[in-house]
Specification:
- Helix 1 crosses helix 5 and helix 2 runs parallel beside helix 3.
- Helices cover 29% and strands 25% of the residues.
- It is built from six helices and eleven strands.
- The strands form three sheets. Strands 6-7-8-5-9-11-10 form a seven-stranded mixed β-sheet, with helices on both faces.
């Protein structure tokens, strides 16, 4: 049976499966928004799949490697989208930004296996690569600095590599990288990633998350236009002293 989920200004439809302990995703489904413009013409909006990477469980809450999860939580709160469904090894929520339908996802497989969640979700909801936004931590960027890119490699990030592997090896999907800085001295990289932020770093990350929500809104509504370029430039120099 075809069910509808109503969100402000959109009509999102998907085929609802019977409740099972482990959802079986065996056919393609669609999330779509159909509206009419001032001339009465039907307008279709392509949905976005927005995925934040992290590790599930309280043990990893607030660690550097989980800022992708935090961004999804921030978007969820800002847009009033409840993350209340488990599907394809992910905690998901369906809603919209403006008139554009979005699917928020936090993979519940561990970081190195994130692709096992993202690949099936993209296939199940028929989301094109250009509308899959992957959000994750990036050590090559200073703490609290964000960068939006239309595509790219995995940069030795195991979660991103797993996602690429499960998207047929493609690198042609957008990503939001959130800077967490480099390990100090000779500190082990894994220990650094699973460490929580200092009080100063936490303030920078919280500010970045708020800025990230605005950037995601711009991307979903306008794509990679000049405003995204300005956002990236502003982020690059935001901690530079004049």
């Amino acid at each position: 049976m075809l069910h509808a989920v109503s969100v402000p200004g959109t009509y999102i439809s998907f085929r609802k499966s019977p409740v099972v302990k482990r959802p079986l995703l065996c056919t393609k489904h669609q999330i779509s928004a159909s509206l009419h413009n001032s001339d009465g013409d039907k307008v279709e909006y392509t949905p976005w799949l927005i995925v934040g990477l992290g590790n599930p469980g309280n043990k990893y809450y607030g660690t550097r490697h989980n800022v992708g999860f935090e961004m999804i939580d921030q978007i969820s709160q800002a847009e009033g989208i409840s993350l209340n469904t488990i599907q394809s090894k992910s905690l998901i929520g369906i809603g919209s930004i403006g008139q554009v339908p979005i699917l928020l996802a936090k993979p519940q497989a561990y970081m190195n296996f994130s692709g096992e969640a993202v690949g099936p979700l993209a296939f199940y909801y028929q989301v094109p690569l250009r509308h899959i936004l992957l959000i994750y931590d990036e050590m090559s960027l200073p703490n609290g600095v964000i960068r939006l890119q239309p595509k790219g490699g995995h940069g030795h990030h195991n979660g991103t590599k797993s996602v690429m592997d499960h998207l047929d090896g493609s690198r042609n999907f957008p990503r939001m990288c959130i800077g967490i800085g480099n390990p100090p001295g000779t500190m082990d990289m894994k220990a650094f990633l699973l460490q929580k932020f200092s009080s100063v770093e936490r303030v920078q990350i919280d500010a970045a998350l708020e800025q990230g929500v605005d950037a995601v809104r711009t991307l979903v509504l306008k794509g990679f236009d000049e405003s995204i370029n300005r956002f990236n430039i502003k982020q690059k120099y935001k901690f530079h002293k004049v």
